[in-house]
TrEMBL record:
Residues 397-432 are annotated as: Disordered. Residues 219-270 form the ZZ-type domain. Keywords: Metal-binding, Zinc, Zinc-finger. It comes from the Eukaryota. It comes from Palpitomonas bilix. The lineage of its organism: Eukaryota, Eukaryota incertae sedis. GO terms for molecular function: ubiquitin protein ligase activity; zinc ion binding. PANTHER family: E3 UBIQUITIN-PROTEIN LIGASE ZSWIM2, RING FINGER AND SWIM DOMAIN-CONTAINING PROTEIN 2. Residues 144-194, 352-393 form the RING-type domain. This is Uncharacterized protein.
Length: 432
């Protein structure tokens, strides 16, 4: 482009300022991104779609005459491309190539897209398994990629890209996007990473909306193994050793099933991980170390602050708690000798089932399946919320056998049933 097609505008007029204020207070949706400067948008409560192109001369398929800024163009410029309203580029009707590049850089800097995790659809026999990536936490500055509104308030139901980037999106916005994609392309992809959203996107969105309406401190589908309270309300306690054994707060405080360690969770939110459950009147590992430090010497005035710490609930990192309940390599050596009929083999001859390096002098634990694993490798695995043996995929803890985020999950419903739900969903109301 050799020159500007329309004159540079020094200041926005009153009409443009009014449209800017209206756009910033209104909700619109981007339903398709044709290219870096070309978008299809629609207004809330309207089925009419408009094609907006930003560049040499901004254009929109609405009836606004050429050379004027409409609300759809300003939605693209201000919210999708993230041009600050104070920037002179936000009220121009014509841009040079270098100005277009500058605008695109603004969007790139402000758009936080988590890199896509490695995903593969694997087959075992005739059954297909899908990999789900870990959901990204919502940060304060995150905005929905479709309506460009903030998501951190928690008022709107959120979904996320389960097969690609893990980023969050408003449920109602994703539904608008999905309906447009189904009507034009026959399939739905993530608006950020373009990964396939799955064969039944509207069904998934309905479930996400229903989950949002449920109280986060009510654990649906979980009942207390002692008093039979169902569902468990408030904090849920889960036995680390037994599969599917949960207690409510009252029964845990009564020291039911106290011969096994427990983990606990306050809510059903996916981003909340399990944590160590400390029985009443029992010091944690942190508190016990403080007590040992104070024993055998006279107390000073500074020690009273330390004593006050003992009254506060304290817990160690989950990975420390989990590792403490696995036998060390010296115990493993004895177990190995017994398992092999008394023929003792040096522990150094066996490798870590995660990194495949020899055990050597590194601190090592034995998994229930009999494999060995370095403590450092266990820490990395537990921090990823993966509680399965990397060699044989058996659970390291029976109570956490189904809780690892990021490992393979089988589809539980037959495809024909899901397709039936999908057809019904296309005629239902948008979830809240």
């Amino acid at each position: 482009m050799s020159g500007r097609s329309l004159p540079w505008v020094n200041k926005p007029d009153e009409e443009t300022r009014a449209i800017v204020d209206d756009v910033l207070e209104s909700t619109m949706y981007m339903v398709n991104e044709i290219g870096p400067t070309c978008f299809v948008v629609k207004e809330e409560d309207s089925e009419v779609k408009y094609k907006v192109t930003v560049g040499d001369v901004h254009e929109c398929t609405c009836k606004t005459r050429r050379g004027k800024l409409c609300r759809h163009i300003l939605f693209v410029v201000l919210k999708i491309l993230r041009v600050p309203k104070e920037s002179p580029l936000s009220w121009q009707v014509s841009l040079l190539d270098r100005e277009v590049d500058e605008v695109l850089r603004m969007r790139h800097v402000r758009q936080r897209v988590q890199p896509a995790a490695v995903q593969k659809k694997e087959k075992k026999g005739d059954k297909k398994e899908e990999v789900e990536v870990e959901r990204k936490q919502v940060e304060e500055e995150d905005v929905c990629p479709i309506c460009q509104e903030e998501m951190g308030g928690g008022e709107e139901a959120l979904t996320y890209c389960r097969r690609g980037c893990g980023n969050n999106i408003h449920v109602k916005c994703m539904r608008v996007w999905a309906e447009h994609k189904l009507s034009t392309e026959g399939k739905v992809t993530c608006p950020l990473c373009r990964e396939d959203w799955g064969s039944n996107p509207l069904t998934e969105l309905k479930k996400d909306a229903e989950q949002h309406r449920r109280p986060v401190d009510v654990h649906y589908g979980c009942s207390c193994a002692r008093c039979r309270l169902s569902p468990i309300r408030g904090k849920r306690f889960k036995c680390l050793i037994c599969a599917d054994y949960s207690l409510c707060q009252s029964c845990f405080d009564a020291k039911v099933h106290s011969h096994h360690p427990f983990v606990c969770k306050d809510t059903t939110l996916a981003e909340e991980d399990w944590k160590e459950a400390v029985p009443p009147n029992q010091p944690t590992g942190v508190a016990e170390s403080l007590l040992n430090e104070l024993q055998g010497r006279e107390l000073t005035s500074e020690d009273y602050d330390t004593l006050l710490q003992l009254d506060q609930p304290q817990s160690r990192p989950l990975y420390d708690f989990l590792i403490s309940h696995l036998p060390t390599s010296s115990n493993a050596d004895a177990m190995l000798a017994a398992r092999e009929g008394g023929v003792r083999q040096p522990i150094e001859l066996h490798s870590c089932c995660s990194c495949s390096h020899r055990i050597g002098d590194q601190p090592t634990r034995t998994l229930p399946c009999g494999h060995f694993m370095h403590e450092a490798c266990l820490v990395s695995r537990f921090m990823e919320r993966n509680y399965m043996c990397p060699r044989d995929s058996k659970p390291i803890f029976g109570g956490l056998s189904g809780g690892a985020a990021g490992h393979r999950k089988k589809k539980k419903k037959k495809k024909e049933n899901d397709d039936g739900e999908e057809r019904n969903e296309q005629n239902s109301d948008t979830p809240g």
